[in-house]
Amino acid sequence: MCAYGAKTGSAEVDGQATPNGWFTAYRGGVAAAGLVLQGGHGGDSAGPIVAAVLKAS
């Protein structure tokens, strides 16, 4: 089993100029997910937030 993994994404919303950005990841026995409204690409917006959570655990 891999000790870590992650997935990025974005979700287009009608009437919103920039998509929502999301990022989900796990490291060992800890998982975290983040969503930034109108954040664009999830790796750029939510990724650093999730990384900070996993590094702190």
Question: What features would you describe in this structure?
Answer:
The chain is built from 2 helices and 3 strands. The protein is α+β, with helices and mostly antiparallel strands and 57 residues long. It has one domain (4-56). A 3-stranded antiparallel β-sheet has the order 1-2-3. It is elongated. The two termini are 20 Å apart. The mean pLDDT is 96.
Task: Walk me through the topology.
Blueprint: E1 4-11, E2 20-27, E3 30-36, H1 42-45, H2 47-56
What keyword list fits this structure?
57 residues; alpha+beta; three-stranded antiparallel β-sheet; 40% strand; elongated
Short recap of the structure:
This protein is of the alpha+beta class and 57 residues long. The protein has 2 helices and 3 strands.
The ordered H/E elements are: EEEHH
What is the count of distinct domains? 1
Q: Structural class of the helices, strands and pairings? A: alpha+beta
C-alpha termini separation? 20 Å
Number of strands: 3
Radius of gyration equals 12 Å
Mean pLDDT: 96
3D shape: elongated
Low-confidence stretches: none
Beta-strand content estimate = 35-45%
What is the number of helices? 2
- Percentage of residues assigned to helices: 10-25%
Strand arrangement, major sheet:
1-2-3
For the report, how would you describe the main beta sheet?
3 strands, antiparallel
